[in-house]
Design goal:
about 120 residues, alpha+beta, globular
């Protein structure tokens, strides 16, 4: 199970929570946003991290300050091109899966970072 499968799991998670998926794999010269979803209040830019184990470090720890800046810059570009009244939010979706990919645990860190990154 790799990135695209993890993004599908994350999209399904958000759908079940009442969000609408409006974009996946949005790329700019600054970086990529794995998943863009919205509900009545938020436009969420989500970074998806899939790992087989969190023995040493949680998957979200891989979203370091440099990665956060790239996501923020890419999100600003998306927002310039797509007008919205919704409040931006930056989530990190951690997915832990067993080796065969049949069982997954999803944890979402809402509002994981923002403009102070």
């Amino acid at each position: 199970m790799r990135g695209a499968a993890g993004e599908r799991l994350a999209a399904d998670y958000y759908r079940k929570k009442g969000y609408q998926v409006i974009g996946t794999g949005y790329r700019s010269r600054f970086g990529e946003i794995d998943l863009i979803v919205k509900n009545r209040k938020y436009i969420v830019f989500a970074e998806v991290k899939l790992r087989a184990s969190d023995t040493w470090v949680r998957p979200g720890a891989y979203v370091d300050e440099r990665k956060q800046r790239r996501i923020l810059t890419t999100a600003r570009l998306w927002l310039e091109q797509n007008e919205t009244e919704l409040q931006p939010r930056f989530d990190v979706v951690e997915i832990l899966t067993d080796p065969d990919g049949k069982h997954s645990k999803i944890s979402v860190l809402e509002n994981a970072f923002g403009d102070d990154a």
